[in-house]
Amino acid sequence: MNGPHFAAPAAPAQQQTARPARPAARPGDRPRPDAPGAVMVFTYLRLHWMMILFCGALLGSGLAYLAWTLLPAKYESYALLQVASAPSSIAEQGDPTRNRTAFGVYVKTTARLIKSDFVLNAALNDTRYRIGELPTLKEQDNPIKYLDEKLTVGYSDGSEVIQISLEGDRPADIAKIVNAVKDAYFREVVEKELKQKSQFLKEVEKARTDLVGLMEMKVGTPGPKENPPAIAAEPKTPAGVMQIPTVPGAAQGQELIQAGGILPAGPAGVALAESDAVKRMKLPGLVQTMTRLETEINFRHPLAVKKQTETIEALKKQLDALNQGPPAPEVLKAAEADPEVQRAEAEAKKLWGDYRFFQGAALNPNDPKVLRIKSRAEAADREAKKLKTDKAFAMERGNRLKQADDLVKQLAAAQRTLKLMNEEYALNKEQLERVRKQIAEVPLAVGSTEEKPPMFDPLKIDVSTHSNLLAGLIAHAVRLQYELKSPPRVQPLQPASAPTQKDSKKQIIATVFAGLMGFGLIGLGAVAYETRVKKVSSLVELKTTGPTAVIGVVPWAPDGSLARDPIKRADVNEAIDKLRAYVAQTWLARGATTIAVTSPLADEGKSFTAFGLASSLAQAGYKTLLMDFDLRNPSLHPYAGVANGTGVCELLRGEADPRGAVVALPNGLNFLPAGKWSDEARQAAVGGRLETLLSRLREPFDCVVLHGHALLTVAESVEIARRSEVVLLCTLYRETRLPLLKRAAERLTAMEVPYSGVVYLGATSHEALC
After folding, report:
1. How far apart are CA 689 and CA 655, in angstroms?
2. Contact partners, residue 617, CB within 8 Å, separation at least 6
3. CA–CA gap between residue 683 and residue 690 (Å, rounded)
């Protein structure tokens, strides 16, 4: 394409008309980016500022509401417990369990017990607070897990205070939850420990009562007479013979008691036998063994058996609950996602819907058909629930089998222990019978002339041993009584405090950020949309990225406001005259006669440009013909103020004469409308017939302006462009897309059009000064 040539055209001078003064240029009307791609972001935001403001306000408000709701300012409530560094008891402090339990370990144990499952379950089941019905816990799938994660039990080293705290967005709920957990701990741990001590005290009192009765029974049994020991006269022995002491009253054949052993009477070499004296010496040990066995059989064994039996029963209950208990709620919820369960539930739901429909439609709700549908719906509902339960059991099978194996092992071990206890009990009873028999067989020592008292009184020894045991039981009972009367080691220091709102700065910042993010997202969306579609936004962008030179800039959009605003109309007239001057001096002066006005797509200002350019050429003295070759969507006749009568289509079909079809307008312009479109006209708009028609129409005119179809949409526009010396591509602000404009320019280059240029419509008055 040749460059501009400003030689004066051989044409009559244009008559100057008075026009309103052009307003001063306003550089801020539309931002002009100096570097497209970087500063154009600001341009895109300015173009969509109203949409960004409106949509951003809506989206920002929604996001701010969500942020305020999902990130509420947390409220916190806490209760305080005091743990004594040492047990408050005047009882004996030499308990080995107490000595092993350091204060730090006790505090950690207390903190763990507060969050244990049985304490949290007790808090949930507390009818006083009913925290399970509170919205905070009701909306949780697993309240126990929620409390274990959210409930905080804190303490400081060296401090006797434990703090139970909970954060939440419902102040009334968290205060009730904290109080419920605190009370459940005291009820399930502290009070239960006191109850266990009271029960143990009762058992000790019962053991003491039974032992006192046993002692009274033994003391009340009549025993042998107690006579003072008699001393036998010592026989005289010859001088120089060693005297062997004998037991008084001993005769020949009786044992001789010597220091270090018993020497039986009789000939030498006879085996030693257990004498009555030895039996009497063993009596204290036999009595102690009997006392120990009686204590083991009558007191310790029943308690141990009772405790072991309770353990076995508890394990059996756990095993039964594991085998017959329902699946966990979270497993049931997971089973609902199974496709088979969903199909079964959908089928049951459909049957219930059919039942309700037929029940409402039937005259008799108890009609047998309706009842059959109801029974089918109930059966499908039961089948769906059974299927969901079976699926849940299948999911839990591995975990349940593992737990059941552990419980079975524990139960077998507990049963073996109980069996060993019973075997030990039987052995102790047999041993007790043997000991009692041995004690009964111990002989009493007798004198030579009268009955002598025994060397050891079994009754006195038995009562003495039982007295020691009784003293121990009494001391233990006294210690338990003092412990029960002493204050508990853990005491409530403060109930749940009034919930206080924590720092709301985080919530406010999140809400403000979410609101601003709404505007940011809409702005980013606008920039992304503009970057993708790449619509023409400014003259600088069109010049820097456009495919061909810009030869005309028309300010203001070609709409109805031009007819009402004289200032805008004056700007547009001036811009059209500048375009006409450029076309006349650059191309018409070089012999060009046919000018085609088109655009990449429809509705981009080509009709306005064609009529304005043709009118300006006619007013400038050029004998000009304006032809509407947009045969499918003719749009020039409203500008000319004539009807779309006989025109191009009729000439192509050979139905009219060119001289009779051309309409002369008052401004000196000759106009040929499009006419009535038909398929025959479309077929004739190519080849020789079109060429002949254009040749005949050019003869009497200096310049012919052809208003064609959009270049990229209709085939006839290519035929018109190929037969024109000049092609003007119209681009409209915020309508024309740069990729399509480049494609249209490439098509013109491929057709080897001699001259072409771009006309930019919708510019600012400042941009039109170029």
Report:
1. 13
2. 580, 583, 584, 624, 703, 705
3. 10
Q: Is-contact 84 489, C-beta < 8 A?
A: yes
Q: Are 608 and 575 within 8 A, CB to CB?
A: no
Query: Which pLDDT does position 216 carry in this prediction?
Result: 67
Give the C-alpha separation, 589 to 81, whole Å: 104
pLDDT score at 88: 58
Is the Cβ–Cβ distance between 370 and 362 less than 8 Å?
yes
Averages of pLDDT over runs of 10 residues in the chain (770 residues) are: 33 34 38 53 81 90 86 81 70 46 79 89 90 90 89 86 89 91 91 85 79 66 42 39 36 37 40 58 75 80 86 86 77 82 88 83 78 88 87 80 85 89 88 84 55 44 62 76 79 86 78 90 88 86 86 88 84 94 94 94 93 96 95 92 92 88 93 92 84 89 94 88 94 91 92 93 87
Q: How far is CA 83 from CA 88, 177, 195, 489, 657, in A?
A: 10, 21, 19, 6, 116
Q: Residue 764 and residue 555: Cα distance in Å, rounded? A: 5
Estimate the crossing angle of helix 505-533 against helix 49-70, to 10 degrees.
150
User: 717: helix, coil or strand?
Assistant: helix
Helix (H/G/I), strand (E/B), else coil: 153: strand
Q: Look at the block and give the residue holding tokens 């179809």.
A: 709
pLDDT at 684: 86
Which pLDDT value is given to residue 392? 83
CA 298/CA 425 separation, integer angstroms: 10
* Type of residue found at 695: S
What is the bridge-based pairing of β-strands 624-628 and 703-707?
parallel
Instruction: Single out the residue of 31, 30, 40, 54 nearest to residue 527, CA to CA.
Output: 40
Q: Calculate helix-pair angle for 171-185, 117-124, nearest 10 degrees.
A: 120
- Given a contact cutoff of 8 angstroms between Cβ atoms, the answer to whether 536 and 736 are in contact is yes
- pTM of the model as a whole: 0.46
Using CA atoms, how far apart are residues 757 and 597, in angstroms rounded to an integer?
10
Q: Cβ neighbours of residue 263 under 8 Å, at least 6 residues apart?
A: 255, 256
Residues 693 and 662 sit within 8 Å (Cβ to Cβ): no
CA nearest neighbour of 441 among 466, 465, 458: 458
The position carrying tokens 């941009």 is 767
CA–CA separation, 312 vs 719, rounded Å?
Answer: 102
DSSP assignment of 82-115, as one string?
EE-SS---SS-S--HHHHH--HHHHHHHHHHHHT
Cα–Cα dist 618/391, whole Å: 88
Contact criterion met (CB below 8 Å) for 735 and 604: yes
The owner of tokens 């037969």 is 723
Q: For 359-379, give the DSSP string.
A: HHHSSSTT-HHHHHHHHHHHH
